[in-house]
Amino acid sequence: MKFLSFFTIYAKRTVRDRMFFIIMLLFPVLLIWLLGSAFAGVMGDQDTDSIVSARLIYTVEESSPLSEAFETHLAGAENKFFTLEKLDDRDLAMESIIRNNYDAFIIIAADKMTIYKNSYYNFNSSMAELILKTFTDDYNLMYEIASRNPAALAGAVDAVDAGPFTKEVSFDRQRTPGSMDYYGVTISTMFIFYGLIFLGTYFAGNKVNKTADRISTSPASMTLYQWGTAAGSVALISMQSLLVVTLGILVFKIYWGGELGISLLVILAEIIMVSAIGTILGIMLKNENMIAGISQIVIPAIVFLGDGYVQLGDSGALSVIKKLSPMYWINHGIFDAVYLHEYKTAAISISICLGIALLCTAAVALSGRGGRTGNA
Amino acid sequence: MIIECKGLKKSYKDVKALDGLDLVIPKGMIYGLLGPNGAGKSTFINIVAGLVGADSGSLSVAGKRLPAESGKVKKLMGFVPQDLAIYDDLTAYENLAFFASLYGLSGKGKKEKVRNALEFVSLSDRMKDYPKNYSGGMKRRLNLACGIVHEPEIIFLDEPTVGIDPQSRNHIMESIKKLNKMGMTVVYTTHYMEEAETLCDRIGIIDHGRIIAEGTLAELQRTVSENELIFIEVHGDAGALAEDIGGLPGVISSEKEDGGILVNHTGGRGILEKIVAGASARRLDIRKIENRMPNLEDVFLAMTGRTLRD
Ligand SMILES: Nc1ncnc2c1ncn2[C@@H]1O[C@H](COP(=O)(O)OP(=O)(O)OP(=O)(O)O)[C@@H](O)[C@H]1O
Ligand SMILES: [Mg+2]
User: Fold this and answer.
1) Segment A224-268, tens digit of pLDDT
2) Which of A227, A258, A294, B2 is least surrounded by CB atoms within 10 angstroms?
């Protein structure tokens, strides 16, 4: 009962705040529309229903059972997904990749394959990666993805376990995220983060206006207060996200593939994390301004690193740093699921979000215990 | 005794907010805690409320030791904090309903208690309004209502009349009397001596975190002096009359003050008649004559050498 009181009072007070609708509903929709339109054509906004096949080149460094299998099963196969050409001039091949004449360059050694591709969300190079993955899965060997930077090359070796290459490489649709699709995801996940400001300032505000004191003098426990309120936040942001996603699908035709369920799970985990962060910030920080201030600096940084505004390159220092941003895992968890039918990133992102949420929950519990012993 | 506290101490760095507070409050009364700014009144209430931990000393409410057994008595207590503690973005009704629910109230019972509380502070007709549209006095009344909506046995009010208009102030004072008649024990802090004098059954005077005097108003007045004061105002030369009165038996002092004469005497019989006779002998018209009891200000002054206000 008391849990429900905390839950509903948070929802009630937050819904009455006009800023909640402006920031959580109006802004994301506007930004998706603005960025989506501004970058139309820059990203892979090809005609999405036409079939675009990946143009791959390969070279065989050393003849081996692996290269034989590759040539008979892949190079020989007729298909609409990719074309494979043999090009033995390595320098020329590299240059072609950089110039975007081809989508990926595959080097086949005796017991190892290396793929050089251009940017991650060039759909075709991602497809090349998938093709190789399927192939190597069947051969039980490691493959390696290198960026255009050959220095990234390292040895990954496993024995070739010969066997027929049977799996079909299948895609439900030839797609690469257009700018609307791209920002439909990254802007939605970005504004979820801003939800922590509402929860954080709620907790801090209750300290400032002393109503938290009233709660703590009542028989209701502070733990119940924190959980009930945080649950209110999860419910509210979930509804808001669902609305933004639905609007995106209806108005901007944003593509979520057949993977909306997975994407929503990723989003739910993010919402739980955001609510946990909001709770600990609201409990630790003294006033509302500090929370808003910190959030306004930290959130854009996390979003930037998470490829939220633009797709950062796959090489260089940023490509390493950006993996520290939970936003990176959230966005790519969704993209990988929707466009590559790859769920590993989604699973990682859910684990990261729930892990951070758990840490915050532990910190909240500890801060409560510290406060009480201080009262003894 | 519904509240007993012994040797309660609390320091903030080098400030001793409470310095060995001893206090015993009997059930069913309006107990006034009177003291100047910074005396430690709020600190005491915050310790009872569990918002602040005492450094040492013992405290019990309704026989339960605090803070160890606070869970058992939280329901019995209601707090009206010195600073407003209400939600500006919830209506008066919603504020009360929320705080009532924290005490396990729900459904019809909750509704009824909320309506009673609104009635009690005369906000029924404004219950659907947001407090941000209220006057200062109305906010204070809502603040009071939030502390009593669950009908506690003991209610703590921390300077509930600070900074409000006389009308709301009277309203609150009357409300407190009503609550007490309904059986609530009231602990009331103030630095207005008039409030303590008119409202409280017993008064503890607190200064620098200690009770320096305690008792009923009459008891406190007697602590200042066994002597009595008479104040007389006349038309004409008061100086000569003051000298005359000074020579009367039993008079300790007779001085010109506030446009009249203040006579301090041992309280012997017939002194008033002798003063009146002295005035008519000098053909002076008496404008005013009154028996002056020492007030709480005098008590405080006598105990500390300072006034309540400074
Ligand atoms: N949180 C705090 N941190 C530091 N000092 C404090 C704190 N709370 C109270 N004090 C100090 O403790 C002393 C007692 O304060 P308290 O608020 O109990 O006084 P009070 O009698 O309620 O005064 P007032 O009439 O102004 O409300 C004061 O000197 C005050 O400055
Ligand atoms: Mg105070």
Assistant:
1) 999 999 999 999 999 999 999 999 999 998 988 877 899 999 999
2) A258
Name the closest residue on chain B to residue A210, using Cα atoms: B85
Question: Which A residues 116-155 touch B at CB under 8 Å?
Answer: none
Range of the domain at A129: 50-173
Q: Which residues are bridge partners to A113 per DSSP? A: A108, A143
Is residue A223 one of the residues assigned to a domain? yes
- For ligand 1, say whether the CB of B143 is within 6 Å of any of its atoms: no
Residue of A nearest to B87 (CA): A211
Residue A161 has pLDDT above 80, yes or no: no
Put simply, whether the predicted model's pTM sits higher than 0.90 gets the answer: no
Closest CA to A178 of A255, A126, A248, A251: A255
Gyration radius of chain B's alpha carbons: 24
Q: How far apart are CA A345 and CA A331, in angstroms?
A: 9
Instruction: Compute the nearest-CA separation of A270 from chain B (Å).
Output: 28
Query: Is A279 in the same domain as A181?
Result: yes
**Cβ of B11 less than 6 Å from ligand 1:** no
| β-strands B286-292, B228-234 pairing | antiparallel
Q: Could you tell me if the ipTM is greater than 0.85?
A: no
Residues A360 and A302 occupy one common structural domain = yes
Domains plus CATH for chain B? Answer: 3-220 (3.40.50.300), 225-304 (3.30.70.1340)
Q: Does A217 touch chain B (CB under 8 A)?
A: yes
Same domain, A145 and A280: no
CB atoms within 10 A of CB A70: 23
Same domain? A108 vs A202: no
